[in-house]
Specification:
Number of strands: 0
Order of helices and strands: HHHHHHHHHHHHHHHH
Largest sheet: none
Helix content: 55-70%
Structural class: mainly alpha
Number of helices: 16
Strand content: under 5%
Amino acid sequence: MSGTVHPVAAEPAAGDPEPARVHATSPRFAATDPPAPAPGSPAPDSPVLAPPPPGTGTPDAQTPAVPPSDTQPSDTQPSDTQPSDPSPSDPPEPAGRGGMFRSLRTRNYRLFAIGSVVSNTGTWMQRVAQDWLVLDLAHGSGLALGITTGLQFLPLLLFGLWGGVLADRYPKRRVLAVTQSSAGALALILGVLAMTGQAQVWHVYLLAFGLGLATAVDNPVRQVFVIEMVGRRDLPNAIALNSATFNGARLVGPAVAGVLIAALGTGPVFLLNAASYGAVLFGLYAMRPAELFPVEPVKRAKGQLVEGLKYVRARRDLVLVLVLVGFVATFGMNFPTTIALMSKHVFHTGATSFGLASSMLALGALTGALLAARRVARPRMRLLVVAAMTFGVLEIATGLMPAFWSFLVLLVPTGIAMMTLTTAANALLQLSVAPEMRGRVMGLYMFVILGTNPLGAPTIGWMAEQFGARSTILVGGLVAVVTTLVVTVLAVPRGALGQTLDGAVGGALARARRVRGVAGG
């Protein structure tokens, strides 16, 4: 389950009762925000990263000025703002209180989060057990292991965008119940095959592809269901907590799986994962529909996928976010491969050290998610740029480390920067689109961040063979830095860059004339 906050109104005092939540169908809902751009129509050419006016200095990247409301910022607002795109169909919610775990005050999200902790742990346990089973059945074949991973990610590449269409078209809670039940059934089948000794490699291939199909639908639906549980105001916090539960399970799950595999074999691990999906299903069943913030499903029609792509293409701000995250994720976030290559071929360590390095990255990611949960301000494009540049620089530095211990140390801040980027991008996209387009946009987001893995991983492997293991992580960091620079330039509003350069040149000439005058006098 998975891979970055918006202005809030005055918060009640700690002792004040939390305002009652209003159901989406209540007549008290009023369209106080301007409507979002219609699908397919260009959005206003709002500035993204305009330079500050002369004499104002450079605003802090982490604390952008907060508009007085959640409405579309005017031209007088700081130039790194994004079109917030609130819509009358996005029901308003009362002002909430701050805090790292504030989304857990919402009962429906609390049920969802508890189920996610259990299920994510089971999912990570199955990943380890599945790899071990394939290696056992295929007599240690790395090719068989690569085919299994590729088959599990292939549906995200082929059908991930259609998952976004389904997210807009059908009630999210029902779709999640179907996808989670399907994933649980697949884990149960694999567990039974392993327990009875009937499992073969082609069984694992088939079941991995089936799990990929379920994930292709589950991922975008899960992302857009979060805002229906907590509302717009707490969405960034809930996204960060989702990432925290995922990475927390990433720390615990593999360790538990290793102990169980050594003691009982792979079969019981698959069965435990199958049972873990029951926690999510119970949470979905126990939710109170009246406390959700539902978005009206889009009626089925031809061309909805193309409509979503046209909507994104017409939104310059969305394209820049997707380009930034897509390139960084494809070439810079292949850590399962790059860490393994660095551990084995550069530092000449074993499987235990590889596991330790993976845990250090997960620790950094967990820390980054919790730090993201603390932020109250809405994410802006500037935060994404800073996070992406920091990630790229840290990844390059990590690839240059001469000793294994220094490599481990730098994996922690690298994980923090990675999670800052992905959580901010996720929240920014969801808060910047029309509600009826949110599923398709998030389907595209999951496509660029996960679906490109079958393309990026072989490229990383080829570079390792041709140029050495260090090149894999160095090139990933370099791509992140270059992409960030390009996106930064493109994000400057049309004409603003030229005005800035003209002003700089004019100021330099004026200073030169003054110096010449003083010298002549």
